[in-house]
């Protein structure tokens, strides 16, 4: 009886040990430690954010965007009959009538409405285009600053610049043919001697005029042939 009892006791001990071992194997006592980061602890790159396809895209202002102001019919860009001895590519500025003619040849010209110098600031003569610039900077000449000291000394080019989208510089003068962000001034005496067009028109003229082109500015007392619209 004694021997049999000791055998059963040993069996119970062995069985208990097996159960404890099985439980410990099934239930880990602590979480595995993470693997150490390699020196110098480099982190994975952060993914670049990409907006969804439906997100609005920022765009630059369009140079050919139609102005909210509509010019009177006579001041709109149009091909007209224009008799002249000047060679194609010549620019004729009809100061009294507020027109600029770009001679096409074969008795035709492209006519644009313009703004001209106010009283006391008109001028006349023959010049040539010595420089062209897109979205030009504006540096008022000393004479203009003396008359209007509140003007900025320099303004970077852009949609808010008074010279507008394009400028064509005339000889060694301070005068330019340029655009404007105030289209309602076309057809008036408004400038200090520069010739201004709407931004849409000056972009068109700029694409036609070459550096070296002849520019004829007619005086106030002389009126050029108004030209007949070509149908």
UniProtKB/TrEMBL annotation:
UniProt cross-references to InterPro entries, sorted A to Z: LD-transpeptidase, LD_TPept_cat_dom, Transpep_catalytic_dom
Organism of derivation: Bradyrhizobium ontarionense
Annotated family: Belongs to the YkuD family.
Pathway: Cell wall biogenesis; peptidoglycan biosynthesis
Active-site feature positions: 178, 194
UniProt cross-references to PANTHER family, sorted A to Z: L,D-TRANSPEPTIDASE (PTHR30582), L,D-TRANSPEPTIDASE ERFK_SRFK-RELATED (PTHR30582:SF24)
Signal sequence segment: 1-31
Residue ranges constituting the L,D-TPase catalytic domain according to the UniProt record: 89-218
CDD domains the UniProt entry points to: YkuD_like (cd16913)
A Pfam cross-reference name: YkuD
Domain of life according to the entry: Bacteria
Name of the protein this chain belongs to: L,D-transpeptidase
Record key words, sorted: Cell shape, Cell wall biogenesis/degradation, Glycosyltransferase, Hydrolase, Peptidoglycan synthesis, Signal, Transferase
